[in-house]
Hints:
Elements: H1 8-17, H2 29-51, H3 55-76, H4 81-84, H5 87-116, H6 120-134, H7 137-141, H8 144-150, H9 152-156, E1 160-163, E2 167-171, E3 180-197, E4 202-219, E5 224-231, E6 237-244, E7 250-258, E8 261-265, E9 282-287, E10 290-295, E11 312-319, E12 322-326, H10 333-346, H11 350-355, H12 364-368, E13 380-383, E14 391-397, E15 403-411, E16 414-423, H13 427-432
Antiparallel strand pairs: 1-2, 2-3, 3-4, 5-6, 6-7, 7-8, 9-10, 10-11, 11-12, 13-14, 14-15, 15-16
Amino acid sequence: MTISIRHRVSLACLAIAFGVPLAPQAFGEAAKATAAAKPAAKTATSSTTSKSAASKTGAATSAKASAAAKPTSAAASTPATAAAAPPENAEEAAATINAAAARNAALNEAVKNYKARPDTATWDVAWRIVHDILIQPATVKASAASITGAYHGLSDLGVSVIDGEGARVWAFPRVPEAQSVILQWNATTSTTVQKPVGRRHKMVSQVTVVSSPRAQVLNVAPGVLLNDAHLMTGAHNLMLSGNVKSSGAVWLQAFKLVENQWTETNDVFAGVPPFLTQNLVGKASFSGNDLVLTIGGGKTPAGKTQPQSSGYKIVLKFADGHYSFQTHSGEDAPTLTALQFVQAVQQGHTDLAKALLADPRLISIPKYIGLGKKAGQPFKLISMANPGPGMFRYRLMTFDKNDLIMDVINYKKAWTVKALFIAPPDPVAQKLVGSLPTVSTEKPAPEKPPEESNK
């Protein structure tokens, strides 16, 4: 096998990407060593035959055979797969490298044509080659860095590799014609076999788990920028999240594994209000299996975009294969502090309310909006986007002309209300609170005096 020198560098990168051991002599010397082994063997045989005829001639022939065998052994001791492995394994390794080199050359040519004339036709050619590269079992097993290092055409296309915590998604956000992504994951199959164990040959069930590399093409809605992916614990559900480029709205798509194929499903959102997964401007991220939606606060009456800290943070809990709308129950310390402060103000416990404030003078703010005169009236508390590290922000929905925004921090090992703000009602918050629980600070009703008997 003859390989031109100009291809050896790219072949070396491909061999490293696919886990083929490599030495400086792997692409020529190894093949020569294999070819040299045959004459060496013939020489050794002839030396044995000649030894029976004449000892001097046999000794000279044996010396020549030994001298011929030394360079062969040296070449065979190199870590090159073709020399160390049997001939058929060397041929398979060479065939794998040659196929990868052919795909690499085809990808570079397709990328060059696409950049010269970017349209659907040239992208389809490049996409078929990209698909052929990324579905190879060796590619699924290799690291993303080694793949992009071996196939420079992927980097030229602006590939984005998203770690899905158990899966890997290859997307091309810089290619307008790209409407699909490639998912790589390891599928596991388990088989149970009954085997006899011990002297009495007691039958015991033994489970064997086999992992196999898989790849599949997933379709993405037009005009969507993919941001994140997450493979749920148990590997039976997959979530993709992104944003619509034109509007910034959150885009979510769930997939379910059915017979080793990922299919789209909306069952996971059955317990979530539709407005939370449709047409909301913000960002989606994952906290374990849970989905965290950070929803923007919209625009001011003047048309200016509000800062991200004026938005709201909604947690969708994942359990039993479904998401559910998770609200604060007051069990976490920051939320409990905010609830205690509001209840203390509404019930007239001024001393307790001041004790929860970093600056007692802030007590005048809730009094200004008449919060102390609304004892017994229900309110709703919604978590907002955190304005900074270690700080938690909440909006108190009073259902009046003013709402109260509170910042809670951990100050001197105690949770404290650091700041209070008066804010007008927010339409986004009013839409969200329809699914939040109502909190009431109603005072216990006074006991009625015993009725006097009319005698």
